[in-house]
Structure formats: C-alpha cells, structure tokens
UniProtKB/TrEMBL annotation:
It comes from the Bacteria. This is 4-hydroxybenzoate 3-monooxygenase. Keywords: FAD, Flavoprotein, Monooxygenase, Oxidoreductase. InterPro entries: FAD-bd, FAD/NAD-bd_sf, HB_mOase, RIFMO-like.
Length: 391
C-alpha cells in the first residue's frame, strides 16, 4: 500500500488533519488503535476558540457546530463565596468561544470522512514507524492478525500522550519538559440543565470546581480531587454533595442533579516535547504537549498544530517548498508555550495547593482580587482564554 501521508491516531487532531489534507487534494490513511465507538466514548474538551472554529469550517465540518454550539461571551470566577464575571468579549475586542463538545467535533469529522470514502483503519495494532529520517518512510501495523505495510512521504503522529509516535524518536533527539500537579479532576456528565448560563470556575477552601456544559440540557462538572482518589469510591450523590459545598448560595439553590452518564478522574499535567519534527515525522496535538484543562486549551492547540501542519504539507506538494515544513516545529512551539504558560497560571490561581502554605494562599487571594478589579489583569485573562492568533 502507498499513500502520501500516514496519520497515526483518529482523535480530533488526526481526523482534522486528514480532512484538511483531503481538501487540499492530498491522500492520507488514518491508523487508529481503538474502535470508532471507543474514541467517541471519551468525554473530554468542551470549549472551542475561534481559531479552532475557523479550521473546522475550513475542513467543511462546521454546519452542526454552528447550529448546536453555544457562543459564550464571558466566564465567572467564584472565590470567597462570590462570583465575578469576566467579560471575554468586551475585553478581547469582540471575540468569544464556542461551547461544543469534543465528542461532537470528532463525530462530525468521522462522518464526513466516511461520506467522502476516505480510509480509516480502526483496531490497527502494533503500529510501528520506520525510516522517517529518509525520503521513504513506512508504517507497519497488524489488523485481524495480518501484518501490513504502508509506504508514504510523511508520517503525522497524532496519537496522543501515550502513543507510539513520540516514543519512536531516539531519546537523544528529543527534549521533554514536564510538570505534574498534585491533584486530578473528577468529571461528571449528566442530562441536567447547566447551573448557570456561563462557565463557573470556583476557588474554594474545599478545592477547585468547574461548572461547564455541553448543551442547554446537558451539564459537565469537575471537582479537584486528590490523586489517590478512585472514581469507584465517588457515588453520584457524593459528587453532587461535594459540588454543592463548593458553590455560592445562589448556584447551590439552582443546581439540578441527576444520574451520571459518565464519571472519570484525569490527572493534571503540563508537558512539552521539543522539537515536533524529526525528518519526515511530525508530532501534533497531545502527542507533543499536554496542558492542564483549566485553560481549555488542549483541543484548541491540537487544532492549531494541524492547521500549521496541513499548510506546510500542502506548500510542499503545491509549491515544491520545504519552508513550511522546516518552520513547523518553531511556529507550533511559539503558540504552545504561550498556552502552556496560561494554563499553568490559571491552574495555579484556581486550585488549592496545601504544600504552598498560608503564604501561598494569601498571595492567591490577592491575585484573584486584583484580577477581577484590574482591567489590565482581566484583559490578559480574556485575551488568552479566547485564544491567541495563529500568525
Ligand atoms: P487524543 O484525543 O488523545 O487522540 C489520540 C488518538 O490516537 C490513538 N492512538 C493510537 N492509534 C494507533 N496506534 C497507537 N499506538 C496509538 N496510540 C494512541 C488513540 O486511541 C486516540 O484515538 O489526542 P489529540 O487528537 O491530539 O486530541 C487532543 C485532545 O483530545 C485533548 O487535548 C483535549 O481533550 C484536552 N482537553 C480540553 N481541551 C480543550 O481545548 N478544551 C477543553 O475544554 C478541554 N477539556 C481536556 C478537557 C482533556 C481532559 N482530559 C480527560 C485529559 C477536559 C478533560 C477532563
Ligand atoms: C469542559 O466542558 O469539559 C471544560 C470546559 C472548560 C475547561 C475544561 C473543561 O476549562
């Protein structure tokens, strides 16, 4: 088998890259370890920046997103029992974000790929990458007990944090930067109306909480929990009781509870691998970097990476130019480190860090008060939350 680009991973970055390349007339095959249903069952991101919305439009998958997505013009910060609104649109020169779940983005991309008759090989095991330091890279995999090999011009490693692509690079050629946080997020999805029209990020003595949503009838809530907690020991009732204790009186009153559709614990991590290109292998999305979810940046960075990558590969074929490919890593990393900084800062501001002691706590309170009172400080939050430009 031969194709121009082999994409490893059918998460949002692999699927979006496949569609952007297809639109540019470039053949590609996606190899995915799991089934499509499994990929759709992972409940993750909920907030899209305009940059991601634009790329999904360019890929031709924007229609349901515009019909069903909820534009958000502000967020609320809750601390010391009171909520303070950050006017994202007013402070960012008119920008907003769109609440539309990663599951829906993935479903839209899967459907259009199937409708165009493009090849996605699900349940591909033992994926291995070869000769990406030459002009003839190859990718091998096993499907239904049979081994296969695909020859290609380029390999895109879109296989997430635990994928094979980053692991295939010699240790001497890559540098990893990492910070692990001493807590995780316990998330719960339920068919209940959201507690508020806008997202609430809460810093409370009992830990961080986030009230988010997927639609006007489906809510997504998160609680900061110790890394030692097991999801099995959190009953729905225990979750709702704890969430109530982390809300202000009005939200507590308004909260509608119901059975969970999904519940899971995710550890929080900041991670960047440099560079993101190794000969003819490119890393994109969570394969190259992780942000703690507080800034809602992970999916958005995955989208901007594949935006740069699809442009670079298109330029290579159309204009016989390597310029885009040669600067791919540097352009991505410049945007990634700014999102890493913002996600680390917002995580540090909103969570409880017992190891930081009373002094750390007081500094956090002072910064929160400054943030909601100072136009300069809240403008910086708004500008980063709605997303920095790609160029
Ligand atoms: P994914 O989604 O992990 O997809 C990678 C795919 O590769 C497959 N794979 C392999 N395939 C073949 N061979 C192998 N050896 C393979 N190894 C792995 C996997 O099965 C999978 O299908 O990475 P991708 O595409 O780069 O997308 C990244 C996003 O999923 C991620 O950044 C976001 O979900 C992060 N995130 C958020 N991002 C936002 O922009 N806004 C948010 O509001 C937001 N909230 C979140 C989040 C992530 C969370 N968790 C659980 C980590 C909230 C949470 C709780
Ligand atoms: C979500 O809805 O899953 C979500 C929203 C905002 C975040 C993180 C997650 O910062």
């Amino acid at each position: 088998m031969r194709t121009q680009v082999v994409i490893v991973g059918a998460g949002p970055s692999g699927l979006l890259l496949g569609q952007l390349l297809y639109k540019a007339g470039i053949d590609n095959i996606i190899l995915e370890r799991q089934t499509g249903e499994y990929v759709l069952g992972r409940i993750r991101a909920g907030v899209l920046e305009q940059v991601a919305v634009d790329l999904l439009d360019r890929a031709g998958v924007g229609s349901r997103m515009h019909e069903e997505g909820l534009p958000h013009h502000g967020i609320e910060l809750l601390f010391k029992g009171e909520r303070h609104r950050i006017d994202l649109t007013g402070l960012s020169g008119g920008k907003s974000v769109l609440v539309y779940g990663q599951t829906e983005v993935t479903r839209d991309l899967m459907e259009v790929r199937a409708a165009e008759g493009l090849t996605t090989i699900y349940e591909a095991s033992n994926v291995s990458l070869h000769d990406f330091d030459s002009e003839r890279p190859r990718v091998r995999y096993t499907k239904n007990g049979q081994e296969h090999e695909i020859e290609c011009d380029f390999i895109a490693g879109c296989d997430g944090f635990h994928g094979v692509s980053r692991a295939s690079v010699p240790a001497s050629a890559i540098h990893n930067y990492e910070k692990v946080y001493p807590f995780g997020w316990l998330g719960l999805l339920s068919d209940t109306p959201p507690v508020s029209d806008e997202l609430i990020y809460a810093n409370t003595p009992r830990g961080f909480a986030l009230c988010s949503m997927r639609s006007l009838t489906r809510s997504r809530y998160y609680l900061q929990v110790p890394l030692t907690d097991k999801v099995e020991s959190w009953s729905d009732e225990a979750f709702w009781n704890e969430l109530r204790l982390r809300l202000d009186a009005e939200a507590r009153e308004r909260l509608v509870t119901g059975p969970s559709l999904e519940k899971s614990i995710a550890p929080l991590r900041s991670f960047v691998a440099e560079p993101m290109r190794f000969g003819r292998l490119f890393l994109a999305g969570d394969a190259a970097h992780i942000v703690p979810p507080t800034g809602a940046k992970g999916l958005n960075l995955a989208a901007s990476d594949v935006g740069y990558l699809s442009e670079s590969i298109t330029e290579y074929y159309d204009e016989k130019s390597q310029a885009g490919i040669d600067t791919y890593s540097q352009r991505c990393l410049s945007r990634i480190w700014k999102a890493e900084r913002f996600s680390w800062w917002f995580t540090s501001l909103m969570h409880r860090f017992p190891a930081e002691g009373e002094f750390g706590q007081k500094i956090q309170e002072a910064e929160l008060e400054y943030l909601v009172k100072s136009v300069a400080a809240s403008t910086s939050l708004a500008e980063n939350y709605v997303g920095l430009p790609m160029k």
